[in-house]
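[step 3/7] inverse_fold.run input=structure_tokens len=302
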């Protein structure tokens, strides 16, 4: 009985398997499961058909939500995204299993959206780095959902800038996205901005931006990712000889990799000298090469 009316009482006990994780992560997962699954459901006998239908829908929604988390913890952001996207769409579109007042759904919507942003960015980045068939279509799908949920996300702007460049060499759209990512905490946007200037042939502007980027903070993987990206573009467009200068700057002024920097600057000089372009950058490359040769000699004489 509940408030004088006879009811069915359903006790919901859930469990799910996933890859081993740290204790704090497991505790958060347990909390998320508690959020999705009420411990008990009261179904009035007078409306048992609707009550059981509601409960069936709730359990299905909660199961997809928790299974999505488990997929994410097990290293499958693609499956996690698909599951959470289906949950989020139901909640977002107002398909609330016959009850718009059930308090569970508001918290579940917020939490699902947070997972979708994380999983969408991870999936989009993996599509970009692994480049499977139609990887650009995959990137766009994930980034579009992230933009709908969090239109100001820093990482999403960076990835969308890359997407526009790869999709159609749309430099203007790429620059707009990179500009939106401007911040003081992480300088990856500066690395992207410098590349775009160099790609357009504005090598002196790129030089100045790289110098700013090298003095600012970035994650440890940013330089390698940028270097790999530039090499990929050079392989596709070998006429973009100015990108050899960019590689030289990264290897010399940031990574302190003298051997690689020497190779990059020498390649730039060989190609640029005969082109009649980039005269100021040619002067800088000669200056850097002289410094590199001097440092290499000193290392050999130690």
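[step 3/7] decode complete -> sequence:
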């Amino acid at each position: 009985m509940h408030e004088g009316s006879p009811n069915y009482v359903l006790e919901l006990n859930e469990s799910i398997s996933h890859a081993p994780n740290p204790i704090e992560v497991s505790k958060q997962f347990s909390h998320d499961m508690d959020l999705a699954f009420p411990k008990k459901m009261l179904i009035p006998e007078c409306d048992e058909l609707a009550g059981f239908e509601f409960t069936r829908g709730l359990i299905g929604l909660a199961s997809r939500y928790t299974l999505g988390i488990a997929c994410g913890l097990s290293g499958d952001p693609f499956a996690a995204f698909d599951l959470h996207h289906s949950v989020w769409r139901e909640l977002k579109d107002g398909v609330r299993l016959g009850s718009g007042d059930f308090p569970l759904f508001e918290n579940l919507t917020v939490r699902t959206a947070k997972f979708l942003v994380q999983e969408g960015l991870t999936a989009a980045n993996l599509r970009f780095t692994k480049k499977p068939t139609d990887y650009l279509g995959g990137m766009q799908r994930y980034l579009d959902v992230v933009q709908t949920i969090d239109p100001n996300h820093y990482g999403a702007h960076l990835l969308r800038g890359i997407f526009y460049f790869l999709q159609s060499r749309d430099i203007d759209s790429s620059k707009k996205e990179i500009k939106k990512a401007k911040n003081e905490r992480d300088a990856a946007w500066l690395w992207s901005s410098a590349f775009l200037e160099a790609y357009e042939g504005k090598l002196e502007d790129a030089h100045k931006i790289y110098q700013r980027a090298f003095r600012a903070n970035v994650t440890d993987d940013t330089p390698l990712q940028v270097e790999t990206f530039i090499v990929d573009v050079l392989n596709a467009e070998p006429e973009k000889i100015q990108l050899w200068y960019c590689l030289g700057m990264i290897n010399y002024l940031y990574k302190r990799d003298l051997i690689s920097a020497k190779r990059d600057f020498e390649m730039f000089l060989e190609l640029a000298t005969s082109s009649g372009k980039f005269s100021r950058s040619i002067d800088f490359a000669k200056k850097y090469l002289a410094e590199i040769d001097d440092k290499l000699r000193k290392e050999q004489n130690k």
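[step 4/7] annotate
The chain has a mean pLDDT of 85.
The longest helix spans residues 104-130.
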